[in-house]
Amino acid sequence: MTDKTFSLTNNSTGDSVELPVRQGAMGPDVVDIGTLYRNHGVFTFDPGFVSTGSCESQITYIDGEKGVLLYRGYPIEQLAGKSNFIEVAYLLLYGELPSKTQLSEFSGSITHHTMINETLLRFFNGFHYNAHPMAMVSGVISSMSAFYHDSMKIDDPVHREIFAHRVIAKIPTVAAAAYKHSMGQPFIYPRNDLDYCSNLLNMFFSVPCEPYEINPIAAEAIDLLFILHADHEQNCSTSTVRLAGSSGANPYAAIAAGVSALWGPAHGGANEAVLKMLNEIGSVENIPKFVARAKDKNDPFRLMGFGHRVYKNFDPRATLIRDMCHKVLKATGGDANGPLFELALALEEVALKDEYFIEKNLYPNVDFYSGIIYRALGIPVSMFTVMFAVARTVGWVAHWLEMIADPQGRIGRPRQLYTGAPLRDYVPVSERD
Ligand code: CMC
Predict the structure, then answer these.
(1) C-alpha 302 to ligand 1 mean position (Å)
(2) Of the candidate ranges 58-72, 201-215, 282-296, 307-321, the one whose mean pLDDT is the lowest
(3) 407 CA to middle of ligand 1, Å?
């Protein structure tokens, strides 16, 4: 708490309330309204939680005006350039960069938890081949609670740690099983001699009948995308994980709730939507028509991959991904299925010069370019959001752990502005007109 206060005056009664102001390690001051209803009988109204901090957190910091993203204080650019996904996962979970021994133990633990129970594998056969992989992934993650009973006691730190390592280790295996099922190909078991991202590529693309060579640039690109997608403070899916977990629900159920929330096109589903949009635009000559549609209030069309609730200057992740796009397209022999990267660059150029996008601070976000990389690596569009989910699992787990260990933690339970019918008496159906 600071000495600062914030006053709120009720103009009809003249009553004034002094609210305490809290100061984080960085970022704007936060007015603590926790006692407002109890002491003064009013709620605050903030649809979409635009001005609401829902919790205290020490994991990730974003300055949307300056385009800053820090994991545990470390700038995303440094982590993307010097670290790797497993080290970043350790950092997000435990708060500090690991020593050599800690890193090797953590990496070993993740590697040795990658297999999934054979019975879980059979779940995939219950899905039609064309089921959306996000449906399979959320269903199977939720079902893990029925299998791994040694990680279900949420008040036991040992159980919580086993859960954390297990779900981070198994999510690529679940993702790959969903992919193989949709392709009608045999499931490929994880390989403990491979790093996290190479193992994922191998489970996706190798087949039992011939050797598969892992392209190191593909593994590097996935590692970068996973670092950039690993966490993003209280976004929609992470808040969903916290809210579901705040009821004491088992952690697999909470993560499955996060997968479901991520699926929507305004969130993680945007990478899939971007690719569909670029295909629909088709060629550079059509860009003005689509930009005009995005600006038309009567047309629901939006430029997917543009805009962000928090970033109002640029999304630092988009810049890093754009650079990786060049590298991947060069290594994979170009955008074989159509020049979508060139189209995306041209669309970005047009939109960034357009008064509408300038005025509303709409810039390309992380999802504008990530799909182009995934596509160049041969990952089908329907799997894009699954790839996002694999990476974000680390962030969800870190936030779930932080929430469960928080002594101030209580069930998340927002209130509402009721606008329905006022009190009225029930009328029997025989007396209704
Ligand atoms: N194209 C055209 N207009 C837009 C767009 C867009 N992509 N995004 C926002 N606007 C307009 C919007 O119509 C509104 O105009 P007005 O003030 O005249 O009503 C204004 O900009 C503010 O938009 P908003 O929807 O109130 O902003 P928000 O903070 O609630 O939504 C957003 C943020 C990311 C959902 C939104 O920008 C959007 O729908 N973008 C496209 C989907 C997308 O790329 N999502 C991925 C987000 S980043 C990764 C992630 O979160 O997973």
Answers:
(1) 8
(2) 307-321
(3) 35
- State if residue 305 touches ligand 1 by the CB under 6 angstroms criterion: yes
Specify the pLDDT at position 336. 52
Which has the closest alpha carbon to 317: 131, 88, 137? 88
Number of helices and strands in the chain (H, E): 18, 6
Give 143-161 pLDDT, tens digit per residue: 999 999 888 899 999 999 9
CB 128 within 8 A of CB 224: no
Confidence of residue 330 (pLDDT cuts 50, 70, 90): confident
Average pLDDT over residues 200-221: 96
CA–CA separation, 229 and 312 (whole Å): 18
Please confirm, yes or no, whether 367 is among the known catalytic residues. Answer: yes
- Cα(364) to ligand 1 centroid in Å equals 11
| Residue of 49, 76, 306 with the most ligand 1 atoms within 8 Å of its CB, for mutation | 306
Q: What's at 202, amino acid-wise?
A: N
CA distance 260 to 237: 8
Token pair, residue 408, equals: 């101030």
Separation between Cα atoms, residue 328 and residue 215, nearest integer Å:
10
Residues facing 6 on adjacent strands = 19
Which residue out of 241, 365, 386 has the highest number of ligand 1 atoms within 8 Å of its CB and is therefore the one to mutate?
Answer: 365
Average pLDDT for the chain: 94
What pLDDT is attached to residue 149?
87
Residue 249: CB partners within 8 Å, gap ≥ 6?
A: 257
Quote the CA–CA distance of 27 and 213 in Å, as a whole number.
Answer: 46
Q: What is the C-alpha to C-alpha distance for residues 263 and 107, in angstroms, rounded to an integer? A: 28
Residue 338 — pLDDT band, cuts 50, 70, 90?
A: low
